[in-house]
Amino acid sequence: MMALKEISNIRFCSCHDSQYIKPKRMLFCENGKERSWDIIEAHDSVAILLYHQPKDSFVMVKQFRPAVYLKESTRKTPNLKVELGYTFELCAGITDKAGKSLKKIAQEEILEECGYEIPLENIHKITEFYSSVGFAGSKQTLFFATIDESCRQNQGGGIDDENIEVVFIPKTEAYDFILNESYPKTSGVMFAFLWFFKNFEGC
Amino acid sequence: MMALKEISNIRFCSCHDSQYIKPKRMLFCENGKERSWDIIEAHDSVAILLYHQPKDSFVMVKQFRPAVYLKESTRKTPNLKVELGYTFELCAGITDKAGKSLKKIAQEEILEECGYEIPLENIHKITEFYSSVGFAGSKQTLFFATIDESCRQNQGGGIDDENIEVVFIPKTEAYDFILNESYPKTSGVMFAFLWFFKNFEGC
């Protein structure tokens, strides 16, 4: 879905009572010395590498990320463009749904964000890793699924206030894409593409 | 360096005035609708994939990460072991040194953490990516260098309070290593290893 991208009137304010970001201080004793380290408790997440076989493309999501925009706004001035806050990511979601398996949450995210209904048995776990280990330490579990248009249920784009654009990256362009800094992206995407190449194409 | 790893008496307390984690609220207007998003400003960083040619191994660092320990402590009980808070990472550091190039900071981190003195011209940029785009959006710039014992200056291990263990991962074991969840690690490491294979070995 080509989501409308009209973002304006960006402002920042202080934030002492966030429901989402709750700083915590860890105190511990290391080799006899008292230490402390400030961290936040972030949600774990799932991400899914989607390979669309007939299109020979990977399916990604592109969305506005306030935190990326903030960082870029401190680097690039003047004439900061909103476009700098958009990142290319794997289809993903936080695992805040009690009682659901990670694979089930992955399945729901694929449907909500990208519009494809994939049977659970066609969603395969690759591995898991941590993000921002210095201050957050949230774990992301990575899955893989092959899709085609027979799985199409809707146009994707996310639910509620989400404003997600579904993007197809041709496999033949994927290696250049991950090294091209003009497309802001996560290392999870970069690993996932190379895993695909190594696992299925031996290169 | 085989760092001593004696961590005990782990406690948590509230944290309203962190110098390191400063929540911020971004307000913006998306397609006519007022929205807000809570984020933190995290430091950008550099990381370096180090390949030790004579040992045919990648050089990594292993260290205790309070944020990872906290997350694991919410998952695995009882008898939580401190070992669960140790992660395998690329040699890395935050870019908080004003006036120094990213490559220079990378060079200093290699010396401080791993003990090797590498000329700037032997440190090559691979690309850059973002971490935790949902709430932090910090950018990591990834470098690569080939090293051997002629570059050895000290035993590494970090400076000040750092307590870093230098670990060699044989290249022949690296692919199994990145998929093995019993070694907690970042997706940056996983991407970097596969980049090496694709770039230098075509697989």
Automatic annotation (TrEMBL), chains A, B:
Subunit = Homodimer.
Report the residue ranges that make up the Nudix hydrolase domain in this protein: 41-191
Q: Where in the cell is it found?
A: Cytoplasm
Q: Identify the keywords attached in UniProt to this record, alphabetized.
A: Cytoplasm, Hydrolase, Magnesium, Metal-binding
Listed NCBIfam families: nudix-type nucleoside diphosphatase, YffH/AdpP family
- Predominant place of localization: cytoplasm
Keyword Metal-binding present in the record's keywords: the answer is: yes
Tell me the residue numbers annotated for binding Mg(2+). 92, 109, 113, 162
A GO cellular component annotation here is: cytoplasm
Task: Please name the source species.
Answer: Helicobacter ganmani
Q: What domain of life does the native source organism fall in?
A: Bacteria
Q: Motif Nudix box in this chain: where?
A: 93-116
* Molecular function in Gene Ontology: hydrolase activity, acting on acid anhydrides, in phosphorus-containing anhydrides; metal ion binding
Q: What is this protein identified as?
A: NUDIX hydrolase
Q: From the UniProt record, give one GO term of the biological process aspect.
A: nucleoside phosphate metabolic process
Q: Which cofactor does it need?
A: Mg(2+)
